[in-house]
Every structure is written in C-alpha cells, then in structure tokens.
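Action item from last week, closing it out:
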Amino acid sequence: GDTPLRSLTKALTMETTGNPSRHSGQRKAAVVGMFDGVHLGHRHLLGRLKDEAALRGMSPAVFTFPTHPLSVVNPAIAPRLLTSPVEKLSLLADNGITVSQTAFITFDEELRRLSASDFMRMLHDRYAVDFILRGFNNRFGTERDLTPTDYRRTAARCGIELMEADSFMLGGGEETPLPVSSSRIRQALEKGDIATANRMSGHPFRLTGTVVDGKRLGRTIGFPTANILPPHPWKLIPAHGVYVCAASLDGRRMRAMVNIGTRPTVDGPDGRPTIEAHIIDFNGDIYGKAITLEFHHRLRDEIRFTSPARLALQLEADRESTRRFPIAD
C-alpha cells in the first residue's frame, strides 16, 4: 500500500491535481495564497473558509503555488521556503483540506500578467469558484492599488462573492499580540529562534532529506551522525547551531541532536555547511534513506573546540540535554 507521503507525491504528479472542479460538480468557496508553512494565521483563514463554504453549501478549495511568485517576479529576493509542495499538502490535510480540494497553480509570466478581474474570472469559469475569502493583506492581479471595495466590485462582475478575512494575531491579554506571517517565521528560523518560529507555526519546523555518506568522523569520538542532504535548494535551513530534534525514519520517531554548520573543530575555518543528526540510542545503516527532522529547541551556537576530546565532552552534555528536553509524542 501507499504511504501517505507517497500518495501525496503521486497526487502532485497526476493530471487531475490542481483542478478541484474535476472532482465534483459542486461550486467552490476559495482562498488564494502561498500558504508557506501553513501557520496559525493560515489555520485561522482555513477555519473561516470551511465555515463560509458550509453556510453556502459549497466545497472549500485552496489555490496555492508550488514555488514562490517572487522566483518569477524577482528571483534575487525570492525567499527560501518553509514547506515543499508535499509538506504543504500534508499540513493542509491536517487542517481538513484534502488533496482533491487543493490546486497548485504554476506562477508563470502568463499568470503574472493577469489583472485581478482576469484572475477571478479564470477561477470562476475554469474552477467553478463562486466565493472568495481574501486573506488579510493578500493581493492578486497586476493592479497594486485596489482597495477592498475594488476587489468586491470586481469579483461581483465576475459572478463571485468576495469577503475580506480579518487579521490574525497571536497572544493578547497579558501578552503583547504577535503578528503571524511566513516571513516572520523565516526570520526567526534564520536567527535560530526555534521557539518563536514553532509558536507562530503551531507545529515544529520540519526538514526532510536523504542520508548521504559523510566523513564518518563522529563515530571516532562516539557520536555517529547521519549526514542529511535536503532535496530542494530553496528549502530554508535554520541558523547554524546545535538543536534538539525528533527524527522520523522508517516509521520510527526518535530523539536526535542536530548540528547545522561547518564543523570548525574537525574541518577548520573553511568547512562546507552540513546538517548532521546524532540519533539517540540508535545504530544502523541508513544511507540513502529519507529522514525527517522536527526542530524543538536550540541548545547552543556552533563553536570551535581546542581538541576533539573537548568536543566529545560538550557533545555528551548536549546528548543529555536532548534526552531531557520535553518532546510530545
């Protein structure tokens, strides 16, 4: 049988993927956006979408992009992404949006040139969309100065009811409200602030890659590591440092301490950046296998030690901290 991941991957390559209108004759209530990370703000929007769809007897639909629109508009400033298309599908499914209710639209030069009216008419005519919930500050179409009233009037001319979603803030009361966005989560991860990133996301940051052959130096000091190669160059990698993670491999979920960096103690100042995971209480041949890391806590900076023996002492302390850190099952 297919694993959920294999099913999602297969769905992405099927001709029917990216066209919810083919899956039923029911009219659609839609949201449009990148949905990178499927964070708490996105979850708030998806909950509202499902409510509005149910009120109108419609099916909810999410229209999203496999790559960031900036990779076409201005590649030099396109951000690295929190989620791959498969990871995004999985997180959307966790929030009640099925693969058949998700459409991946390729953001190309043709789509880039569409006005808001042309874009909404395309959704209405090709995908049976009769209602759009426009995310807070979300824009589509070539126009940059449309007001909410403009969007509603333009949608009405296309046969679509459009409603504005409210903004989402994390916290409140005693706590200072925190705006949630994919860019803020990226900024937190790039600083190594896993706690803030995970809090805004509502789930741990995940990184999936393939275990590749490394220098195997870790085993010489009692800490064998899996050298992990991310599958996409545009996947965001957290800041250099040592992290407490949960590693999922072959259906098992185990604790791991993960080093992201250049290994200055063994490779000197000019080392190539690597991602290495020491899986606690595990020993096995896992070369070539897929592994997913969930990031739960940042232990410390990556630093250069005066000797491998001093590095080993620190790694022992890191391993004990990793054992003790509370990770939910």
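Closing note: The radius of gyration is 22 Å.
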